[in-house]
Amino acid sequence: MMTFGTQRRRRLVAWGLLAPVLLLYAIMLVAPLINLLVQSLHAAAPEQAGGGISLAAYARFFGDAFFLTVMARTLRVAAIVAVLCLLFGWPLAYHLSAARGRTRAYLTLVIMVPLLISVVVRSFGWVVILGPHGLVNNTLMVLGLTDEPLRLLFTEGAVIVGAVHMLLPLMVLPISAALDNIDPAVIRAARNLGAGPVRVFARVLLPLSLPGVLAGLTITFGLAASAFVTPAALGGARLKFMSSLIYQYNVIVLDWPFGGALSVILVATTVLILALTTCAFERGPFRAVFRRS
Amino acid sequence: MNRPSPLLRLYTALACVFLLAPIAVVFLSSLTAANYVSFPPAGLSLRWYRAVFQSDEFVDSLLISLEVAAVVAVLATVLGLLSAVALTRFPFAARDVVNALFLSPLAIPGIVLGAAILQFYAATGQASSVMALVLAHLVIATPYVIRLAAASLIGFDHRLELAAQNLGATPLVAFRRITAPILLPAILGGAAFAFIVSFEDVNLALFLASPKSTTLPVRIFTYLSQESSPIISAAGSVLSILILAMAVVLDRLIGWRAALAK
User: Fold this and answer.
1) Has residue B244 been placed in a domain?
2) For residue B39, is it within any domain?
3) Does residue B1 sit within a domain?
4) S-S: B164 plus which of A170, B84, B153, B174, CB 3.0-4.6 Å?
5) CATH value at residue B224
6) How many domains are contained in chain B?
7) Parent domain of B77
């Protein structure tokens, strides 16, 4: 469109255009994250420690059974949520891929709209559904299946239901994108060679959808492990997760070293688990699918 | 692929009910006439919407949210557009690395970024303020603008501009009559997306909330962690209606899937 003279001048202009965002990222992303890491390496009371590096905050976390229980719960719930999203999301993604015209448009809309509604609102919706006077308990009582409201809210189950609802679309979209990429001729060829529906699913559709499955598992597990609002609203104050500890120690206790260490531990374990999962997929029986892309 | 079997269609219908139920329940329970949250709602009335708009807390939070989101939308669009032009029109040695860097804020859990920014503000002696929140939201909103604008710039055919100039248009006229109208949907779509990202955010806002910078999602969250009142349904419905209105604008400009496709 415009001419910018020499190569060197063009490069200067490009960096000039990038400068504002680079500055923003440096101040609001890189510096805070480095600061967080550095703070986590301080002893609990910086004025006593004399500014030296200390692993006290990490030792406190790994030396306390309570914190380890919270971490185990966080990772367990995130894994259950990711797997449930996969089981419930795959058929939905398949239907979305196969649908045409109006059905496809409406289905896309139904899957997308929940993504736009604030997580605060969606969590409250589950509070209303699962609460003592909510939809489920009212129905059960009208049907005479129970005399008094069941305690559904403030349980791990409630957190799992809310998180699956929050993350299901993020599993469906990448899987359906992967299924969309399958050449219909491949499926026709499998059928012509005598494969029934089960074989087509197990030998063609499922393997070729694995890149989408991996993307979906990565997104849902990562977001479930760090979700704050859903566990807080549906799990209540007593059921602690890593995210609730991060909030508590940073905002209420104002313990920077421990608050920082909790954040670092959450990110590190999530990244480690996701890296191992990716490795397993890329070296598994269907590794050829991943090499192609 | 085959026509979906009846079993799959039944399953999908149930899944759709699951996806929409909590949202519908919030809307319907906001219309209750009773003093407590129940489903189905007891009686119909708009009294809880009146309560929301008569509450200083909710009205202040709504105004703060709108103000922050509007400023974020404008700034993110300008910053994102400049970067997108640089990334698509100029040669970069490691384009993939640079692109990944620009999307990196989206890979960091909101709660961790919130804690990091809170600690950083404390370390540098800054108080939580509306401006602090705007800067934090810019980090998570700008990547979306960059992505949308870059996609549109890559798809833009340079020769259209050259053709206009060959036919006698000055560069300015060519830009105004050809380039701008073609890129405008992506630019406005990016702005709408940045607005929604900021307006919906609760993870960063929770960490940076002060009495003067408590956004509507944070206000709703503090209410719902203390009690279960129909006013939460009404405030949540107001929040959702505003976002859905923005989403309709976004859809008209760039289409749903383009905006959310990864």
Assistant:
1) yes
2) no
3) no
4) B174
5) 1.10.3720.10
6) 1
7) 50-260
Please check whether residue B122 touches A, CB under 8 A: yes
A187 in Cβ contact with A203 (< 8 Å): no
Cβ of B2 within 8 Å of Cβ of A135? The answer is: no
From first to last of its 293 residues, chain A has per-residue pLDDT tens of 445 457 778 788 888 888 999 999 999 999 999 999 999 998 765 555 456 788 999 999 999 999 999 999 999 999 999 999 999 999 999 999 998 888 888 899 899 889 889 999 999 999 999 988 888 888 888 888 888 888 899 999 999 999 999 999 999 999 999 999 999 899 899 999 988 889 999 999 999 999 999 999 999 999 999 999 999 999 988 899 999 999 999 999 999 999 999 999 999 999 999 999 999 999 888 888 887 54
In A175-204, the residues whose Cβ lies within 8 Å of chain B are 177, 184, 187
First vs last C-alpha separation in chain A: 33
Question: Does any domain span residue B30?
Answer: no
CA angle A249, A253, A258 (to 5 degrees): 40
Q: One-letter amino acid identity for A262?
A: L
Q: Do B19 and A20 touch (CB under 8 A)?
A: no
Q: Which two structure tokens, joined as six digits, stand for B7? A: 């079993």
Q: Which amino acid is at B42?
A: A
User: Could you tell me if B202 lies within 8 Å of chain A, comparing CB atoms?
Assistant: yes
Domains of chain A: 13-54 (no CATH), 56-292 (1.10.3720.10)
